[in-house]
Amino acid sequence: MLKLTLKYSSFQKRLTHGEIIVHRVLIYNMAYATGAPKSLPDSILNISRYFMPTRRNLNNISRFINTQKADVIGLIEVDTGSYRSSNVNQAARISKHLSNFYHSTTKYGDSFTGRMLPILSMQGNAVLTKDEESNSIYHYFPSGFKRLIIELDMGFYRFFLLHLSLSKRVRQIQLNHIANLLHTNKNRPVIIGGDFNTFGGTKEIESICKELNLTNPNVNNHPTFPSWAPKHQIDFILCSTDVKIINFEVPDIHLSDHMPIMLDFEI
């Protein structure tokens, strides 16, 4: 039974002065809804969870996401329809539970291995939003195994969801690519979220933050991985400096090997 001890944000409302709307973004690497290990040995010994049915834990994740009332939800590691998710896109199931709209696809681009192997061929990322009019564009990194970039046009800002490589060398190529991509249109604020896999620390993102004038609202460097004993800040939300940060949280919820992250902001 899932027990939630989470508080609703007091910022999630329309403010009366000047009709300012506070928006919320939630980013979660949900590990294909395969569950939350209790330790590293537990994670290794129970590796079979990646091949087991996921519906029960997916329902728990859906309930958690529903409590957060986010306007944009970036989900990393989503099963888009393999046998373990009963051939149903997990993003579609969560979206239906929330009455949201979803944008998802697999994350390997034109990789032969990623497209042909069972289960692997259905692994992707997704963005859920309350806005039916939001338009999505799928970009792909020039290198790395995980190549998908999801861009969402949210009107007053653009949102990007990333899942970067485990290789530091490839991550740098991918960060340079996203910097070049964002340079093509700088007339609106941007918010970039995802699993950056920056086990070397935040120094890896200093260059792109400086180049694109981005800020990391996780000012206290709260770690997000692994969820059983967080040590590393590898899940990020980066935003343009003209985005007014209201609140940043790492909700204490254990349904994956990652912790979720959440940002309340004004444009």
Structure description:
The structure is a single chain. By secondary structure, the chain is of the alpha+beta class. It has a single domain (23-266), classed as Deoxyribonuclease I, Chain A (4-Layer Sandwich). It is built from six helices and twelve strands. A six-stranded mixed β-sheet has the order 3-4-2-1-12-11, covered by helices on one side. Strands 5-6-7-8-10-9 form a six-stranded mixed β-sheet. A hairpin with a 4-residue loop joins strand 6 and strand 7 (158-163). Helix 2 packs across helix 3 (90-98) and helix 5 (168-183) packs parallel to helix 6. Mean pLDDT is 89; it is low at 1-17.
Topology of this structure?
Blueprint: E1 23-29, H1 40-45, H2 55-68, E2 72-79, H3 90-98, E3 101-106, H4 112-116, E4 123-129, E5 135-140, E6 148-153, E7 158-163, H5 168-183, E8 190-195, H6 203-212, E9 214-215, E10 235-240, E11 244-249, E12 261-266
Parallel strand pairs: 1-2, 7-8
Antiparallel strand pairs: 1-12, 2-4, 3-4, 5-6, 6-7, 8-10, 9-10, 11-12
Helix pairs in contact: 2-3, 5-6
